[in-house]
Write a structure and sequence with these properties.
The chain is of the alpha/beta class. The chain has 5 helices and 9 strands.
């Protein structure tokens, strides 16, 4: 994927994003991998809004890659499907496996299931195959191109702090950028 073409606010041609699919994400977790993952895609306006800042924070922190997992895919009927909707038994099992692996809990559930619903963008850290933390922010850009949360539950400072905290946990550091 050409991230600069897909994400309208991301202008850094040398960005540190790498696309991964579901199997690659589960391999990262199951094979004791380490990394920062953002779940979302260019179709999500909130993911669009954070990618520039996420890239900037990651580069400043000295990480080489941030994995981008898009839960949308083309199904056997050649239609766009979203893993998080759990429309088939296969997607329900895959989504459940992901939620369980990262120990995600949320009061909001996927319709007709008892599985916690993950909103995008969803950022989480993996250290030696274990999830070391996660968070989600819904933000947009204002007229000046600045990141602005859409609700009172979060702030831009929280976003920077949470991303830095996850990076530090992934890298086993205690300082903040």
């Amino acid at each position: 994927m050409d991230f600069v073409k897909e994400y309208k606010y991301l202008e850094d041609e040398a960005n540190i994003f790498k696309s991964i699919n579901y199997d690659e994400l589960m391999d990262l977790i199951n094979n004791l991998g380490t990394g920062l993952v953002v779940m979302g895609g260019p179709w999500c306006e909130y993911t669009q809004a954070i990618m520039k800042e996420l890239n900037d924070i990651g580069k400043k922190a000295g990480i080489d890659v941030i994995y981008n997992y898009d839960p949308r895919f083309i199904d056997v009927f050649k239609e766009v499907a979203d893993l998080r909707e759990c429309k088939t038994l296969e997607t329900k099992l895959k989504y459940y496996a992901l939620v369980e692996k990262i120990h995600y809990k949320n009061d909001e559930l996927v319709q007709d299931t008892l599985i916690s619903k993950i909103d995008t963008p969803f950022i989480f850290g993996i250290k030696n195959g274990e999830c070391v933390g996660y968070f989600s922010i819904q933000a947009t850009k204002n007229a000046d191109g600045l990141l602005v949360p859409i609700n009172d539950k979060s702030s831009v400072i929280d976003f920077y702090y949470n991303v830095t905290s996850l990076i530090n946990k992934v890298k086993n550091l205690n300082n903040y950028y």
